[in-house]
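Continuing the batch. This is chain 6 of the set; chains 1 through 5 are on the previous pages. Same settings as before, nothing changed between runs. Recording input and output for traceability.
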Amino acid sequence: MGDDFKALAQQGGLPRGKGPQRDHGGGLDGAVACFGGARAGWIDLSTGINPCPWPVARVMIPDMAWTALPDRAAMGALEAAARDLWQVPEGMGVLVAPGASALIARIPGLAGPGRVHIPQPTYNEHAAAFAGHGWEVCADADGPVQARVIVHPNNPDGRWYGADDLRGVPLIVVDESFCDVAPARSLLAHLPREGGIILKSFGKFWGLAGLRLGFAIGDPVLLARLAEGMGPWPVSGPALAIGAAALADRDWAAATRVRLAADAVRLDAVMRRAGAVVAGGTDLFRLYTVDDAETWQARLAGAQIWSRIFPWSRTLIRLGLPAPQDWARVEGAL
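Output for chain 6:
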C-alpha cells in the first residue's frame, strides 16, 4: 500500500494530547473554491456514503414529529428496530444518538485517561477525541493499555478484525460504521458484556448522513453514562420516524448490498484500466495506489469530481461509489 501507509501503520505511538491530522472526506466547498464550477455540478466521491439513499418518501412523518418534543414511544420504536436488525444479545444496551460522531467525542470520558491503542491509519476522530481527553494514543499495542479502538472494517483500507482483537483491555470500542455491507462479519456476538461498545452509523449504508443518526450497542452501564451527557431529546422526531422505517426495510437492504458489491467491482475495473492498483476498501469506498495522489485528485477535480487523498501518503487515493447517473462522467475523466 506504499511506504507512507506502512510508516504510519508501524509508528510506535503518538504523544499525549496529540493526534493525527484531522482530515476528512467532503469539503466540497473548498474544492469548488479551488477548481471552480457550481457546487451542484460536482460529483462528490470523497466520502463513503451510499449514493443511492434509502427513500424517505416511504415513511409518512406525522406533523407531531415536527412540532412536539420527541416522545418515548418513537425512541422505543427505533431502539426496537435496531435490536431486531443487529440481533442485539439480551442484556446489552442500545443508545440512539445524533450521529456516531457525537458518541465518538464522548466515549473517552468514560474512563482514564490512560493509554489507548488505536491501530493506524484509521478514521482520525477517535484519536483526536481520546487525545482531547488527555489519553496517550499509541498505534502499537506494546505495553499495557487501558483502552483499544478498532474500526471494523477499517477506513481507509477495509481491514477486518477478529474476536481476539476485543480481548485484554478494560474498554474496547468497535466502530462498525461501514459493517452493514457485510452484517455477518459484525463482532457484536463477541463483544465483552462489560467495557464493550460497538458503534453503528446510519448515514453510511442508508445514505442519509444529513439526518445525523447513530447508535451505540454494548455495556448498559457505559451507555447510561453516555446518555446522561446528551440530554433528554438527543434525536429529532423526524429522524426517529425515518430511522425506524429504514432499519426495518430488509428488502431494500438486501438489494442494496448486491448493488454496492457490483459497483465496487466495476469501479476497481475502471481504476485498473486507468493505471491504479487496488489497495483495499469496502463496498462503500475503494482505496487505490497511484503514482501521485495529488495529480490524480487534480485531474479528477478538473472534471468536477472530488476524491479523497491523505496528508500522510503520496500515493493513496480513495473513491466512493458513483451514483448511477454519474458513471459515464467518472469513466470519462479517468
